[in-house]
């Protein structure tokens, strides 16, 4: 009789131990699922913030470049361009092979130009794209010129991003502009003025 009671006691203890192990296993799985879900939500939040930051920068730059003054200033001002006004080879411009004028990392795009005086900086290489995201930064800014006819060219300002902390591939934003140029020396065509700016077809999504 005593052996039977001992057996039952041992069996019950074994069952309890197994139940504890199963409970711990289920708890570990549940904890892992929660942590995975939180990490996924965090990544989604970062990705959304970066996308909104790119759209916010595009909206702000479209307004800043609308009157053409900022475009003309950053390309022709000698304090920003000690080597002289920025130029391109108009003979090499094609839709499939646009001529590119990259801005130096120290050259920003401003909110406005008032009587030759720059307003606040909107964006610049290495700076955050927008206050809406702390992880998305601007990697480069360039003017891409795709078509020209006599003294008029069509191009776009292209802003690329880097240092994204999300899996979202934030594409460069593009803002179109019309340029009046001086092709007297075709290989070193200068930009006399810029007219307007508007969004192109590109969209900063994955």
Your description of this structure?
The protein has one domain. The strands form 3 sheets. Strands 1, 2, 7, 8, 9, 10 and 11 form a 7-stranded antiparallel beta sheet that branches. The relative contact order is 0.17. 34% of the residues lie in helices and 33% in strands. The chain is α+β, with helices and mostly antiparallel strands and 206 residues long. The C terminus is likely disordered. The chain has 2 helices and 11 strands, in the order H-H-E-E-E-E-E-E-E-E-E-E-E.
SSE inventory with pairings:
Blueprint: H1 2-64, H2 69-76, E1 87-88, E2 99-102, E3 109-110, E4 113-114, E5 117-118, E6 121-123, E7 128-130, E8 133-149, E9 152-162, E10 173-182, E11 189-199
Antiparallel strand pairs: 1-11, 2-8, 3-6, 4-5, 7-8, 8-9, 9-10, 10-11
DSSP, total strands: 11
Principal-axes geometry comes out as elongated
Unreliable residue stretches: 33-41, 199-206
Computed CA radius of gyration, to the nearest angstrom? 29 Å
Largest sheet: 7 strands, antiparallel
Give the SSE string. Answer: HHEEEEEEEEEEE
Strand content: 25-35%
Helicity level, as a percent range?
25-40%
Indicate the structural class.
alpha+beta
Give the total of domains: 1
Number of helices: 2
Instruction: Return the average pLDDT rounded to an integer.
Output: 82
Distance between the termini: 73 Å
List keywords for this structure.
206 residues, alpha+beta, 7-stranded antiparallel beta sheet, 2 helices, 34% helix, elongated, disordered C terminus
């Amino acid at each position: 009789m005593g052996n039977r009671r001992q057996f039952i006691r041992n069996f019950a203890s074994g069952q309890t131990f197994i139940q504890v192990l199963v409970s711990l296993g289920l708890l570990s799985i549940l904890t892992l699922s929660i942590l995975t879900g939180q990490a996924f939500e965090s990544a989604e939040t970062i990705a959304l913030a970066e996308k909104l930051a790119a759209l916010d920068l595009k909206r702000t730059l479209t307004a800043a470049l609308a009157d053409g003054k900022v475009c003309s200033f950053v390309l022709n001002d000698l304090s920003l361009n000690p080597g002289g006004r920025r130029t391109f080879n108009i003979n090499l411009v094609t839709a499939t092979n646009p001529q590119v004028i990259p801005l130096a990392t120290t050259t920003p795009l401003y909110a406005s130009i008032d009587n030759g005086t720059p307003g606040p900086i909107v964006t610049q290489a290495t700076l955050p794209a927008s206050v809406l995201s702390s992880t998305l930064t601007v990697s480069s800014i360039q003017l891409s010129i795709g078509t020209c006819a006599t003294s008029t060219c069509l191009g776009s300002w292209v802003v690329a991003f880097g240092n994204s902390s999300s899996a979202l591939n934030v594409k460069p934003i593009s803002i179109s502009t019309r340029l009046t140029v001086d092709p007297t020396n075709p290989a070193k065509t200068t930009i006399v003025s810029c007219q307007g700016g508007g969004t192109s077809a590109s969209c900063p999504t994955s």
